[in-house]
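Need residues for this backbone.
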């Protein structure tokens, strides 16, 4: 492991965030002093662990404006998305429901797209809507798709590659007016934009701890209680989490998730204001070194920490990253980084393949310093300039 002095500038906070030291401190006792199973309520240590889990559940619920009993702990947003989409479809089918259409968007995370497509083998009709060039879903496109009776609509709140913020409240209301359930993957939205499930028509909402400075391996699914949303579980087992997600609850991870949610709710406005300033500082410095840089996605409707940048001159983004080893950035979703294909999100925006291959994703976060921003911008600019010179020789 590198020490802090030699660590690269980390600008990949959409892929994951560092664990906040306050979160680490909250977790530690539940590995050392009290390691009991939260389901072992026959003894004192088990009851203490259960109480810690329920306190954390309340903090996660407060972050999104839910009741604590509407929060189901999972292993992360991927599992939550699968449970929401497949669980809702399978429960409805098991009850004899006739609706078979399931709608999502071309720029969704792959776990949503694959969950929707998997349902085709079970007799459902997957519909994948296109987006505008700015990455936003046209409301009329959803209304048109909903003319066929629809079971479920799933739209990501904040895109994990281009950072655009969808009008989730409006889209949820449109879905609800058509009699469909509405799910949103809010892994990139929680702690960055206000969320109030009680004041919207959102039925199901997915969260991930490691996107809000909590530990990896823990997430949650909000399941609306009134009117009640019913799901078929993906796992068989001991019936934990209201029978929706069986398995021993990882108390240390849940406590960490709860603390991360508590901090995010209290410090979100301060965080986002500071991060927005860092983003503009970085962009100005990079534009000075790389004339012709282009920002992808809506400039107005986006989270503070995200920049998706196409480099001019046909320089491959992977080459730039190799030439700038002191900077940690990415070309797209970490879940798709093994693919040699350019980002499907950028292709959905209409970017030609050469431009998609010349695009970097920048993620600025809570712990990004001005010095890191300046160092990263300078190194990326030097790398691009060097590659351009090589190409001209």
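Answer:
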């Amino acid at each position: 492991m590198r020490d802090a002095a030699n660590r690269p500038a980390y600008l990949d906070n959409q892929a994951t965030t560092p664990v906040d030291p306050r979160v680490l401190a909250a977790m530690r006792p539940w590995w050392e002093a009290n390691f009991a199973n939260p389901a072992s309520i026959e003894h004192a240590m088990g009851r203490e662990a259960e109480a810690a889990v329920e306190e954390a559940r309340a903090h996660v619920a407060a972050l999104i404006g839910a009741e604590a009993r509407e929060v189901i702990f999972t292993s992360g947003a991927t599992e939550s998305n699968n449970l929401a989409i497949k669980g809702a479809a399978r429960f409805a089918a098991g009850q004899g429901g006739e609706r078979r259409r399931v709608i999502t968007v071309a720029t969704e995370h792959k776990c949503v797209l694959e969950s929707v497509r998997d349902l085709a083998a079970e007799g459902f009709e997957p519909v994948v809507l296109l987006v505008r060039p700015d990455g936003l879903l046209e409301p009329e496109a959803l209304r048109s798709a909903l003319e066929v009776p629809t079971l479920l609509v799933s739209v990501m709140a904040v895109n994990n590659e281009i950072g655009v913020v969808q009008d989730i409240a409006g889209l949820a209301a449109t879905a609800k007016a058509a009699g469909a359930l509405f799910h949103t993957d809010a892994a990139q939205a929680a702690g960055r934009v206000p969320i109030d499930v009680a004041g919207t028509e959102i039925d199901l909402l997915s969260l991930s701890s490691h996107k809000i400075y909590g530990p990896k391996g823990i997430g949650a699914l909000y399941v609306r209680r009134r009117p009640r949303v019913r799901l078929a579980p993906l796992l068989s087992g001991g019936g934990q989490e209201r029978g929706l997600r069986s398995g021993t609850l990882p108390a240390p991870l849940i406590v960490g998730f709860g603390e991360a949610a508590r901090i995010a709710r209290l410090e979100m406005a301060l965080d986002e204001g500071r991060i927005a300033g860092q983003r503009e500082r970085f962009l100005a410095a990079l534009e000075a070194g790389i004339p012709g840089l282009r920002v992808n996605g809506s400039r107005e409707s986006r989270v503070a920490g995200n920049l998706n940048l196409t480099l001019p001159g046909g320089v491959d983004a992977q080459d730039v990253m190799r030439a700038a080893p002191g900077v940690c950035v990415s070309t797209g979703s970490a879940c798709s980084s093994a693919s040699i294909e350019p980002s499907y999100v950028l292709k959905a925006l209409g970017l030609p393949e050469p431009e998609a291959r010349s695009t970097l994703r920048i993620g600025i976060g809570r712990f990004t310093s001005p010095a890191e921003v300046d160092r990263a911008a300078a190194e990326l600019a030097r790398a691009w300039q060097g590659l351009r010179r090589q190409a001209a020789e």
